[in-house]
């Protein structure tokens, strides 16, 4: 007897990071991990302490919502991290996909490993800080 194949059930589970291009695969509410360079941090005054992050990996971007309680717990990583790993629940509203953060890890030291890899000089400029500092 053949069983039905459900492609939405075959995605990397935490702690493995899901490539951002595959964020459309897990169902809403699924627990996922994403990792990437921090492109944007937003903390609008009207958002009642919520922080919005945009992370980029080699496949695209991921939008992350950090509720105030989670922000307080992982404050240092959210504020200072250049490369983050975020585990949380996938939230899908129409075409918009967010990861609602439960745990945030600053993995910035891994940037040195990336820069030491073959072809690193070409990537060094891509890993530069947005504020221009080394």
Automatic annotation (TrEMBL):
InterPro entries in UniProt: DnaE2/DnaE/PolC, NA-bd_OB-fold, NA-bd_OB_tRNA
Superkingdom, taxonomy of origin: Bacteria
Chain ranges of the OB domain: 32-107
Similarity comment text for this entry: Belongs to the DNA polymerase type-C family. DnaE2 subfamily.
PANTHER family membership: DNA POLYMERASE III SUBUNIT ALPHA, ERROR-PRONE DNA POLYMERASE
Designated name of the protein: Error-prone DNA polymerase
Species in which this protein is naturally found: Albidovulum salinarum
Taxonomic lineage of the native organism: Bacteria, Pseudomonadati, Pseudomonadota, Alphaproteobacteria, Rhodobacterales
